[in-house]
Amino acid sequence: MKKRITAPREVLHELQQDYFICTKCKMCQGVHVQFCPESRFWRNCPSGSNFRWDAYYASGKMEIARGLHINEIEPSDSMRHILYTCMLCSSCQEQCYEVKQLHPTRIFELMREKAVREGWGPMPEHAQLVESLEKNDNPFGADKKKRGDWAKGLALKSLPKESAEVLFYAGDAYTSDPALKHAVRAAAQVLLEAGLDVGTLGADEISDGSLMLQLGDRDFFETFAFTNIETFNSLGVKTIVTPDTHAAWVFKEEYAAELDPGIKILHLSQLLSRLLKKGQLTPEKEVNIKAVYHDPCKLGRRFEIYNAPRRVLEAIPGLELLEFPRATFNSLCCGGGGGVRYAFPDYALSTAKERLFEAEWTGAEAIITSCPYCVQMFNQAVEATGSKIKVYDLAEVLLESLGKEV
Fold first, then answer.
1. 126-275, what's its fold?
2. pLDDT for 128-177, tens place per residue?
3. Most buried of the four, 69, 95, 364, 375, by CB within 10 Å?
């Protein structure tokens, strides 16, 4: 019998020391205030700030975990609501680990796995995502036969028919949302401009499974992980690069141990920063705009990739790079994390509006980020509010500065 290659590192009760130690100090509710100049932006937990009950903050969910452990409480609809309105953004863990070395985000992920195993999670609204994955290998309803259509006309190699050093993995969002087509094409085009040997799987690319892992359905996630790992190992590539932060997350945390040791996994922002440093990309055209960079939660707090995207933007002539009051490890979630937006769209949008307000506070003319879900959420917020702020994917701005078009 084949072993589970991405078996859970723990089950919930193995982290019992964390939720029994939690003293409800409420550090998890805010930011590192010494790095945030405006008190208006000191709160940083989306669910706690929105629903205004202690149960929705990390300290409350830690108490729920303790109650479940000692059979003091039973799962309920309200408990499920509390658990699945968490965006898994890790802001709470950013605060807590510095003080007590506790892991609230990991506990909430394992609580969701417990909920799925016991049949009280995820939310009913998530069912259509599961159905689409079963039918299309993509959670967002896109026809799997058209998954590679975004790359038409680009000089990318077709894997596995041809060989290439770099596999460009586009991801679920970029291949299903027409509004993101320009961004993913820009990402691939920049790599070609750098002279890299790049290929894609086209219509044979399937979901990375990250959304199912966020919802707590590890078994379903593993069906995609098994297939992808087998495929990736058969291609002979040296590097896997993706502009999708959630794909990068599962590739690095869940896939890496079973990939061939010679395969490197990079988020696009990391590779772009290296290519600029090596002189393989030379931005010359001015992009005259005041822009603020938004740190995606999975890219930032999960992997501490803060400098790479900023180095890319700093290399672009004419671009004035501003910072949010809540920047880097203090960053507020865009509203698209944890699968929340698919069950609670109004709440997710309100979080995106708060981040948009913060961007306007800085005087920025544009928000630049490096995650497709962040781009989607900010575009929704701009449309809902009538804001004049523009939203860009990192690769779009760099490609413009290279004087190229897709």
1. Rossmann fold (3.40.50)
2. 999 999 999 999 988 899 999 999 999 999 999 999 999 999 999 999 99
3. 375
